[in-house]
Structures are given as structure tokens and as C-alpha cells.
Amino acid sequence: MEKKMDEEPKSSYPKGARVMAAVGAVLLALMYVVTLIAALTTSPASSGLFKACLGGSILLPIMLWLYIRFAKLFTK
Questions:
Q1: Among 10, 12, 9, which residue's Cα sits nearest to residue 72?
Q2: CA-CA 20 to 30 A from 24: which of 15, 43, 53, 64?
Q3: What is the pLDDT along the chain (76 residues), one digit of tens a residue?
């Protein structure tokens, strides 16, 4: 069977999972920017902001991975 060059490749992930992955990538990028700003400022809140962004950088990808896995599992 020959593939046509005009055909768009099909994704094995549902559209919701792809959207959540894109949103997660944007959120991670924003958290890194906030972390950089918090590290460069000397306000009293910068320590808490830095810790929150650091925790989010660990928890957000794990939560998104779980969401995408469950979405793929339940949509088959």
C-alpha cells in the first residue's frame, strides 16, 4: 500500500491530549521565566515564588503525563 504525499499523518493521541501537552509546554516556559525573574529580584516574595516554580517544574510534567496516558487509555 502506497502512502500519498498529500495525506496528513494521523496522530495516535486524542486532540485533547495534544492540546494539554501544548498548554503544559507554555506553562513550563512561563514558570521558567518567573523563576528567572524571582532569582534576579531581591523582594521578600522571591524566595516563595522560586520554591513554587521549582515545585511546579517537577509536578506539572508528571501531572500532564498522567493526564495524557489516561486520555489515550480511555479513548481507545
A1: 12
A2: 43
A3: 555 666 777 777 677 778 888 888 998 898 888 888 877 877 788 888 888 888 888 898 898 888 888 877 887 6
Per-residue 3-state assignment (H helix, E strand, C coil) for 20-63? HHHHHHHHHHHHHHHHHHHHHCCCCCHHHHHHHHHHHHHHHHHH
Other Cβ atoms less than 10 A from the Cβ of 54: the count is 13
Question: Measured between alpha carbons, how far is 6 from 11 in angstroms, rounded to an integer?
Answer: 16
Cell numbers standing for residue 39: 532569582
Which three cell numbers, joined as nine digits, stand for 5? 504525499
